[in-house]
Each structure stands twice: as C-alpha cells, then as structure tokens.
Amino acid sequence: MPRIPAVPPARAGRAGRLAYRVLRRRFGAVPEPFAVERHHRGLFWASLVAEIAWERAATRLPASVRELAVYRTATVVGCSWCVDFGAMLQRLSGLDVERLTRIDEYASSPSFSAPERLALAYADAVTAQPMTVTDEQVAALRAEFGDAGLVELTRMIAVENMRARSNHALGVTDQGFAAACAVGQRPSRDGSSIA
Length: 195
Fold this sequence. Notes:
mainly alpha, AhpD-like, 2 domains, two-stranded antiparallel ribbon, elongated
C-alpha cells in the first residue's frame, strides 16, 4: 500500500475520472502512480502529458534496447511497480520477457545482444550514485546508436530514474500487471486480477 493513498475515482473530479477511464481501458487498471499523483492535479496532468510525449517521441532506438534499459533502471533503483509494469509493456510489445529473469547477468548472458549489453551497462552507469558514465562508454554508444539514439537512451533512463525513485519513495509497489498479462487477465483497480 502506498504511503499516500490513491485518489479514488469519486474524488478524482470529472476530468480525473475521464483520465482514469482512459488509463483503465488501455492498461486494465489505473496505474497507481497516477492515482497517487492525482493529489496534485497540476503534476498529475504534467506527468500524463509527459508520458504520452515520451512514448511518441522515443522512436530512434530499437524497442528492445530502450525497454531493456528502462527495465534495468527500475531493477537497480528497486521499484517493484516499475518492474511489474515494465514486464507487462514488454510482453504486450511482443518482446522476450523470459530473459528478464537473467537481467542481472546481462554482461555475460547470450540472451542479450551486444547493443543491448551496451545499453544495459549504460543504464547501470547513469543510475549509479555517483554516476559512473565514461567517455569510452559514450563513444561506443554513439557509434552504435548515433547521437539521437544516445540522447533518447539517456533521456529514457533518466525518466525511469525519476519514475522509479518517486514510486519507491511514496511506497507504490507492484500492482499485478505482469502476472495478469501472463495469464490473459487484467489487473483490477486494487491490483488483484480480474477477467
């Protein structure tokens, strides 16, 4: 249970209820970070618009590279909600989610391609406290993905750091998205699975 309770639909306001309905239709449940953030209406809308913009703009990298780097960031920060939601998004995108169980061994696992390993190591370096990004690492990423690809990778890792750290601090935990998706069900508003 989050440290700040989610705003229920009855208290979300007319526009909030509409947003909840759209989110529920798309994901099967209202993602709890949005329902918690609804306490601050301005940030709720800013986050919703930003998420849509990032999703539409992030098109330079292969989806597997981008999504693995974001997922890795969530695991390093320790955000169970982000890990849960990220696994669902990867499954819905047709990506291989079985290899997510080997994410900690990415450097030596044959489950990950060389470009994916570069991106995962970069996610670790950007997320480390203090950051451990090197000039050599950036040069290798530029050679692999180009300037626009490197900017996209950096931004999406930074965005996931923001999401994961915020969720972790507010006590937002996994909501059952990955498990529900695995069995063809959708999570309910309270996180339990419904058909």
